[in-house]
TrEMBL record:
Keyword Transmembrane helix: yes
Keywords: Membrane, Transmembrane, Transmembrane helix
Species annotation: marine sediment metagenome
Lineage of source species: unclassified sequences, metagenomes, ecological metagenomes
Keyword Transmembrane helix among record annotations: yes
Protein name in UniProt: Uncharacterized protein
Amino acid sequence: WLAFHGFVAMVSFIGNCIYIDLYSYLFYKGLKSRIYTGPRFKKYLAYFGFSISIVLMILLITMQPIVEWILTILILSWILITSCQMIIFKFFNIPGIYYRRSKYPEALKRFEEALQILDRLDMSEDPLTKTLKKNIEFLKSELGKKT
């Protein structure tokens, strides 16, 4: 059973570290990319992800249980911090953040069309309708600032 545990643990750790490294690379590059308009992850999260691979290398060299537990805690911490940042972005950012300013007129048109459809379906009190109205107000105010 010990050999089986070791094999499964190593496959799991290596897979997790590859996953975290790839996402950390995207977090790092996303900050530098002009075309990326999604959530802005902190640089420390990318560096934290890269450092997890260093701990994996230490585990592969030493095969010590304490390093295995440290790696487990680091992986869990990275996942939780990333999840918290996504939740914060999802629920505490301004509406319309995914639209570039050049796309605001198109977004406004689409939101108004969606609002008309919801009104025809008699869903004027639906939370989705309220969110659409807030997005429309936001886009109109931003477009008003432009002119």
